[in-house]
Amino acid sequence: MVSSKTARKLEVASPVPADIDIANSVSPLHISDIAADLNLSPHHYDLYGKFKAKVLLPVLDEFQGSPDGYYVVVGGITPTPLGEGKSTTTVGLCQALGAFLDKKVVTCIRQPSQGPTFGIKGGAAGGGYSQVIPMDEFNLHLTGDIHAITAANNLLAAAIDTRMFHEASQSDKALFNRLCPPNKEGKRTFSDIMFRRLKKLGIDKTNPDDLTPEEVKSFARLDIDPDSITWRRVMDVNDRFLRKITVGQGPEEKGMVRETGFDISVASEIMAVLALTTSLADMRERLGKMVIGNSKAGDPVTADDLGLGGALTVLMKDAINPTLMQTLEGTPVLVHAGPFANIAHGNSSVVADKIALKLVGPGGFVVTEAGFGADIGAEKFMNIKCRYSGLTPQCAVIVATVRALKMHGGGPAVVAGRPLDRAYLTENVSLVEAGCVNLARHISNMKAYGVNVVVAINMFSTDTEAELNAVKKAATDAGAFDAVICTHHAHGGKGACRFLVSWLLANNALSLNVTEYCDKVDLGIAVQKACENVTETMRFLYPLDISIKEKIEAIAKSYGAAGVEYSEQAEKQIAMYTSQGFTHLPICMAKTQYSFSHNAAEKGAPSGFILPIRDVRASIGAGFIYPLVGTMSTMPGLPTRPCFFDIDLDTTTGRVIGLS
Amino acid sequence: MVSSKTARKLEVASPVPADIDIANSVSPLHISDIAADLNLSPHHYDLYGKFKAKVLLPVLDEFQGSPDGYYVVVGGITPTPLGEGKSTTTVGLCQALGAFLDKKVVTCIRQPSQGPTFGIKGGAAGGGYSQVIPMDEFNLHLTGDIHAITAANNLLAAAIDTRMFHEASQSDKALFNRLCPPNKEGKRTFSDIMFRRLKKLGIDKTNPDDLTPEEVKSFARLDIDPDSITWRRVMDVNDRFLRKITVGQGPEEKGMVRETGFDISVASEIMAVLALTTSLADMRERLGKMVIGNSKAGDPVTADDLGLGGALTVLMKDAINPTLMQTLEGTPVLVHAGPFANIAHGNSSVVADKIALKLVGPGGFVVTEAGFGADIGAEKFMNIKCRYSGLTPQCAVIVATVRALKMHGGGPAVVAGRPLDRAYLTENVSLVEAGCVNLARHISNMKAYGVNVVVAINMFSTDTEAELNAVKKAATDAGAFDAVICTHHAHGGKGACRFLVSWLLANNALSLNVTEYCDKVDLGIAVQKACENVTETMRFLYPLDISIKEKIEAIAKSYGAAGVEYSEQAEKQIAMYTSQGFTHLPICMAKTQYSFSHNAAEKGAPSGFILPIRDVRASIGAGFIYPLVGTMSTMPGLPTRPCFFDIDLDTTTGRVIGLS
Could you tell me which CDD domains the record lists for this protein (chains A, B) (predicted)? Predict the structure, then answer.
């Protein structure tokens, strides 16, 4: 029944053990077996140990011209703070497609930040019997991409402060002499990267000695306005005390103190660049044109102006290669990039999806997850990621739960760490029906892109048939291609697939008292049909050649807003980006995921509200403008009792314990 | 003539190209070939791409009981700021032993910090035709060990500030309730790591509910004295503006601001732990007992008290495996750890040396480099590293140059970036002879450990025969086993080995106009003889069971000091460490490498001075007390024109350019 070469037996235990214990109970296949199943030869990848490999970018050139497989994006309805099982559904869908329906399939997911692994949230490898393994490697350093981002981000930060320091204490001439020092023969040269700044300044001279004093000044003095600096340092740790700091207080820094702060590494613009780039050459350009702030005259200052675009690319040269891993059932996974889903676009990388689409080929499936609710993650997938990649999805899966729909129908607040209200544990069809307005709007929003929408109803044991039928009906009424019930076993949305359970039953390998099965296979079949029956062509929500405000308003309308209100600061920033020539960029809304509106408490499908834009910022290198709708925290904190209290290494076996 | 299985042809160009260009001109062998030459099977290592592999710690268990090879440490005389070619000599010696004399050999060297690679210094892979390759991988992320250290160090830092924050706002009971929350059945449990704190407090209860209010208080409240915190954050970037900062200025941190700072990552105590640990279990204990500061009552607070010893071990579990690379001539190199040479012990890892000694076996050679002059690096190699490893070296190589000896004889100051004074470019035998006091003291100091001392005279083209003979004579007079002239070609101490040149001549492959050859082969032969003819047994400079002051004074005496003077702060710290029970630790002097004394300007072999101890600190987890003789910078800065201006990626070939 399971025909994939790399499929394997799972030993299922009851009650479902901790994620790390399930992950450790399976011996992963050597990653070269997974690679071979995808027709990858050893020269196509670099091994990182036995269970991880980086697929090398030249694979794309080699497969150029060969046709792509189907492209499926997984989003969700507006979630509760508990999450609705999007990652688990994504992995489970792929296990169904690959291990049961015998399709070529690649799961493309984001690399999680290491911060939450040791903080509150724990790991992000899926859950229960739908996981990416080895889950400890997935949740920890992986192949070092986030560490590379941290290093590159902070080298740029150090260069900014140091450049201001050196400019403050040196004359134009001394500065220039240091930047272009004479060699032994007394001859000066520009380094390659300096020609980028010269070009920007309109100076076409190639001999440093030919520059006029005015040109020397404009070349050598970036004259950064300290108040304009938007580039912050980053760290892949939940360190709340670094949110706002003062630097430069050492005596050698001569009083050049400055207020700044750290974000968590995945919030770095370099992460967004990694996620959106299409090639080494493209990454080089994007990194070089990242804007760190303005000169006192108001001109944007870039990484290339600081002499750093090349060095940053060198630091990121391995990070651009996606990491190949596997699911518990031996289907391939590409893990790559993990940009924030509010101040950035919250999707895994273009490069991984492109490679995956070639590897699965026609009839195969690439399933990629978009962070947050579909109003944010999937919207940005369409309007930012697909715009830069040129790729066209056929199907959007929207993961819904009865629990979240009851909340949208008016149920009491769902709070992490507190017991669920009775409303969520007993049948209440009308509450579900009322909440389906949220699902319906997500469906119609997604359909507007020209894709087929499949609703995956992630079922809990407390859900009743009547409730589930209400969701199915609402989904179909709203124009979904299909709505499929996926039954995970009771406690916590973790569970095994029907095919797996059947197979285990057939093999007398089941020690679990299973009363409900998940229908991930049905989901697989539904997704397959949705992909095969696309009738429309892909459309974007807005064109790029309209104003920044018009773009913001188009997105706001999709939220149900009646209008948009700009703060004075937002107006100022929009005017600045417009004058700097950045109007052509797509928009990345930094908005709460807990409501269509700016107010997390407004559930369901609010409309008629005015969306307030507090500020507007830009990631010029990554390639988007991001309006801030409310305050976004870009550095999480640690609770009184972080996850790390339970995490340890069994020093005899070398195995990680206590990771959740 | 070259019989090693993995030896290869080198194409030598003139003039000697940039290091990265030489490194790029050679196609490295697949690292599995290098591993196979060492009798390593694929299950003994994890590949990290094609040219790096992590040798797994269980190799040590497998080879337990098999005899070790010879153990050679490379140190240097007191250097000029230009460096005397210690790394290049180390790599060259191994190339000679392995590729020419056909001995089993492993070079054990430190992983360099990424900071200087982009700052002033450039890379650290050796130079010219004596390099570790691929040199870009060596100088950049390598296999992520330093990134793991950064992550672990900063998780601990975040935990410190957050714990103080949570303790400040919660009652003993609330704190305890959060640390040991009741489960669904209302039952509380301690996590495993909490039993370490309970044990330390003398509480042998296992049920949280049985604790008295007093016990609850002492368990839950670490009561860290903010002024006592010695744990700083780290970053592997030259970021001088982080030397002194104020954290906690965000509104959510409620005014709990604190002055602190960042060091460069290699200055983290975790790096010293990595370098000194002998096993996973040992590393777990060392990480857990790292002291971050004191409670207000004066008790040391450890990583385990904060609940972090296990999580830190998990972060470091791959970092403990040394990275296998190769020299330009295909001999194996283990790159592992790179602790600071002043506030830490400046030597590569115990684990790498131990593995290497088993892999080369009897008659084979492990050559390991000790940072700084032999008064610091080699002294700490003997008294700290060998003390923890239990390993016994047979031979110490001391690298000397005529240039540095002239400086010690009274020559003008040598300053990096400025032209050398005439004294260094023309014959001056008496200046050399006068300077040999420095060499002589290093020789007699090293001989005191019971090893044979071989002096490697790293010759420049400006050196004359009379000058070189003066050094040879002085070395022999001082008791060196042998003194060998190693001739590198003229400009910059980079060059090719005689054996290489002969071989290239024999193969008509030489396009270089070579007038001088290096005698690294002679050095190889001398080192072999020195190892085969050890007559004494290894001795330490001081026993561990004397007082902290007596140990400091023993080391000071080896510097030529007549006595030691302690500041009030130093006295206070010594009293504290003594009362805390840390007197048994070895001493790691944080002293300038530019003089035997505390004053960098005192060249030669100063004596009769009083060594001032400004402060005394401790790395309890790593396992040493470090007295500060003067001020040590633990965070370098960037110059006006850092190396990064020249560093770029050729996006067509994927090759790094401009790395030096």
Answer: FTHFS
Q: Is A467 left (phi over 0), alpha (psi -120 to 50) or beta?
A: alpha
User: Which residues in chain A have their CB less than 8 angstroms from residue B155's CB?
Assistant: 118, 237, 644
Cβ–Cβ below 8 Å for A313 and B644: no
Q: Residues, chain A, total?
A: 660
Say if residue B25's pLDDT is above 80: no
Is the omega angle on the peptide bond into residue A15 within 30 degrees of 0, that is, cis? yes
CB contact under 8 A, A46 and B48: yes
A2-6, A304-308, B17-21, B39-43, range with the lowest pLDDT: A2-6
Q: What is the DSSP letter of B594?
A: S
Residue B193 backbone phi and psi in degrees, to 5: -65, -25
Q: Cβ of A117 under 8 Å from any chain B Cβ?
A: no
- pLDDT surpassing 80 at residue B439: yes
On whether any CB of chain A is under 8 Å from the CB of B644, the answer is yes
Paired with A627 in beta bridges are A616
Query: Tell me, what's the ipTM?
Result: 0.94
Contact A46 B46 (CB under 8 A): no
Residues A494/A488, Cβ–Cβ less than 8 Å: yes
Any A CB within 8 A of B253 CB: yes
**Residue A322 backbone zone (phi > 0: left; psi -120 to 50: alpha; other: beta):** beta
In chain A, which residue's Cα lies nearest the Cα of B49? Answer: A46
Q: Looking at the complex, does the CB of residue A280 fall below 8 Å from at least one CB of chain B? A: yes
Could you give the CA distance from residue B371 to residue B340 in angstroms, rounded to a whole number?
8
Name the nearest CA neighbour of A70 among A359, A475, A384: A359
Token output for A257: 């103190």
3-state helix, strand, coil in chain B (%, to 5): 40, 15, 45
Q: What is the mean pLDDT of chain A?
A: 91
Decide: B510 and B129 in contact? Cβ < 8 Å.
Answer: no
CA dihedral sign of residues A267, A268, A272, A275? negative
**H or E stretch at A427:** none
Give Cβ neighbours of residue B136 (< 8 Å, ≥ 6 apart).
A314, B20, B23, B656, B659
CA nearest B157 in A: which residue? Answer: A239
User: Residues B264, A151: contact at Cβ < 8 Å?
Assistant: no
Outline where A333-428 has alpha helix (H). Answer: 350-360, 377-380, 386-389, 402-408
SS3 assignment, position B421 = coil
User: Residue A442: which residues within 8 A CB-CB, separation 6 or more?
Assistant: A75, A77, A78, A373, A374, A375, A398
Give the three-state DSSP class for B173: helix
Provide the shortest C-alpha distance from residue A261 to chain B (in Å).
9
Q: Where are any strands of DSSP class E within B501-613?
A: 563-566, 610-613
pLDDT digits (tens, 9 = 90+) for A490-509: 222 223 344 344 444 444 44
Residues 154-213 of B with CB under 8 A from A: 154-155, 157-159, 161-162, 165-166, 170, 175, 178-179, 181, 191-194
Give contacts of B234 with chain A, Cβ < 8 Å: none
* pTM for the model: 0.94
Q: Mean pLDDT, to the nearest integer, of A549-570?
A: 98
B334 at interface of A, judged by CB pairs closer than 8 A: no
Q: What angle do CA A328, A331, A337 make, to 5 degrees?
A: 90
Q: Which of A281, A314, A649 sits opposite B647 (nearest CB)?
A: A314
Picking from B136, B139, B146, B155 by the largest number of A CB atoms within 10 A of its own CB, the best residue to mutate is B155
Please give the helix or strand (H or E) that residue B114 lies within, else none: helix B114-118
Instruction: Name every residue whose Cβ is closer than 8 Å to that of residue A65 and which is 6 or more positions away in sequence.
Output: none
Number of residues written out for chain B:
660
Please list the residues that pair with A566 across neighbouring strands: A613
**A286 close to A273: Cβ distance less than 8 angstroms:** yes
The widest CA-to-CA distance across chain A, in whole angstroms, is 87
Nearest one of B272, B334, B384 to B109, comparing CA atoms: B334
